[in-house]
Amino acid sequence: MSSFNTSTALAVALGILLLPLVFIPYVAWSFRRGTVGPGHALLSAAAVVYGMALWTYTILPLPRQDLVCTDAPSPQLVPLAFLGDITWGPGLLGDPALHQVLLNIALFVPLGVVARHLFGLSPRWSIGLGAAVSLLVELTQLTGIWGLYACAYRLFDTDDLLANTAGAALGVLLAPLARRVPGQHSRPADEPTPVRPLRRLTGAAVDLLSVALVGLAASLAVALGYVVVDRPGDELLELADPVASILAVLVLLLLVPMRWGATLGQRLAFLRPVRTDLTAPSPQQWLRRAVGGVGGYALLRAAADLGLPGGGALADAWVVVALLVIALVHTRGVSGYASGLVVVDAREPDPRSRVRSRGVDPRRMSSAVLALGGALYVAVALLAAALTALGTVLPQVAVGLVLVVGMAALVASSLALVGYVTYAGVTVIRREGRSAGNLLALLSVAAMVLLVATLAAAALTQWRWLVVLSLTGLGVSGYLGFLFVAFLIYGQVYGRTTPDPGIDAVVVLGSHVFGDTVPPLLAARIDRGMQVHAAEVERGGRPLLVLSGGQGPDEPAPEGEVMARYALAHGADPDLVRAEDRSTTTEENLTFSAELVEREGHGSDLVVATNDFHAFRAAIIARELGVRAHVVGAPTARYFFPSAVLREFVGVLARSPVRNALAALTVALLSGGLALLLTRF
Asked: Is 18 exposed, middle or buried (0-12, 13-18, 19+ CB in 10 A)?
């Protein structure tokens, strides 16, 4: 078992080390086959680790040379001889000989899956590959690694050939299951596709890795040259790494794209940087793009090697900022904004229609998590850079000051937040009543107080299981708190962004009306929608203004009709106002309104107006429905906001209950396991 665990750990370690070396060939291979996606990349990475496992399980550990031939095994050439080695009877399931055969079968199952699914080989060729690899392994063992040892140090076994080949055949049968792994996209390799963030980041990753590898190779060559001339202690040797990195940036990120129109990573991912008028970039634009993108990271790293205080932390912050811009703002990235260039598909015969496309859909909860996590990382990196610079003078004072100020700010903000949420919770209950949604604010405060009390009791009593329970609760609450803060901040920023011009309709989501009276919350939605609508009309557009909402059991008229009357009374153009009066949920609001706009002969680009607490969840729903809509938010009363946004957050979590429950359970197990481990010391 110890040897098995060692082989597993070694296979994983070697596979991970090998991944950077095979990443660039993988990108070239996968894009030219037309099979891409994070799921496909994950399966391919697992195949690399599996390849290392085949080696570690079948060849390692290597024995000492002087002990190999003292007890060399004789080849086992009789097929199915293992049947006589198995003890058939009540203890069959625990028989070591049976276990050995089953392990040999299991070892080659992944090979059949890889050959059939990833490489697309036929079943016959996949099974044949399994037999060939098994034969190669057995012959390597038989020949003492092809003469490296004087005789065999492992048994050549015909039954191993049969078991391994059977395992590959079983893998071929199981290969269709690999298609169920999400994130795998197959299409003709010559078919142009929109430029999405993941594809753009793949090209950037290839460029970053190529710069690093070329710089490393150049610095190693210089170091080897110094060894050859017997000058290993020369001071100039310290400049080899930064100078090599700078030269790699100049060659790969400036000279290569100036000559061939794209970097290596862009060519492999079928990307091409162009001006917005589709003309070729100028040398100055290529230079700004090189420095503003991957080159900026490499240059900051080189500056850190040359002694720039905090250069490494600044380089890390640069990478995260570049990632966030590509993933959340525009696929042109920081380098595109710096150079005035956009990135289009190199296979697109007429990319004019793609130039204006951002390629980014921000309507995801994952975008909120990425934004908050990235912002925190950048803040920490910048703080680290500042501390590094200040630390050369007063390191203890700088670190102590930051810690004191940070802790004071955290405590003060937490107390202020609890006070505000408590006040808002009491106020909303007084004004709106004791509904489940209105109680969320006070329930969240009660949960925080209970958690703090449990932590305090655990610290005072030193009761082990109470400590574990409290730390587990802290882990889960921290996870949920991070998600909520991400949802809150990102949602508020998203709801306040300005829609792009050229919209086809503005849809206002309905809410409860009282007779013919539009309450303030709904009036704010309509006013916000009319504001966006008027701005588009001023630009020369003729978008529809759709007021969407059906009739509730206690409402005398459909919400859409009451909202339409309000809009007309406040100056809306009657020729452009439409009432959608069938919907009862946000999903129906969006679906029925989009259908109405389509029936009117308009396009499918919508702006949806709702309240700020509801904007992000409405955007997530629109994305899930396939509705092209930018959602804007109208202000909400301060006392009502906490309960409302908590209700929206719970609604977002409820849209993916299994995924979120598994994530929370994972956090609970990890934090609880860590707490259990810590309490043993």
From this structure: middle
State the first-to-last Cα distance of the chain, in angstroms, to the nearest integer.
28
What pLDDT score does 355 carry? 75
List C-alpha distances in Å: 454 to 142, 333, 450, 458.
Answer: 64, 46, 6, 6
Fold for the domain defined by 494-639? Rossmann fold (3.40.50)
Separation CA 205–CA 513 (nearest Å):
53
- Can you read off the two tokens belonging to residue 192? 């142009």
CB-CB contact of 249 with 301 (8 Å) = no
Domain boundaries, the chain: 2-186, 197-381, 494-639
Interatomic CA distance for residues 501 and 499, integer angstroms: 6
SS3 278: coil
Q: Helix, strand, coil proportions of the chain in percent (round to 5)? A: 70, 5, 25
Of 327, 328, 362, 364, residue with least CA distance to 652: 364
Using one digit for the tens of pLDDT, what is the confidence trace for 355-390?
Answer: 777 889 999 999 999 999 999 889 888 887 887 776
Of the candidates 578, 615, 624, 620, the residue with the CA atom closest to the CA atom of residue 597? 578
DSSP reduced 3-state for 101: helix
Burial tier of 84 (Cβ tally within 10 Å: 0-12, 13-18, 19+)? exposed
Q: What is the pLDDT of residue 393?
A: 47
Amino acid at 405: V
Q: What is the pTM of this model?
A: 0.83
Contact 304, 312 (CB under 8 A): yes
**DSSP tally for the chain: helices H, then strands E:** 26, 9
d(CA 471, CA 679): 11
Local structure of residue 76 (DSSP, 8 states): B
Answer for the pair 618, 610: CB distance below 8 angstroms, yes or no.
Answer: yes
What's the CA gap between 416 and 499, in Å, rounded? Answer: 34
CB neighbour burial string for 583-600, b if at least 16 within 10 angstroms, e if fewer:
beebeebbbbbbebbeee
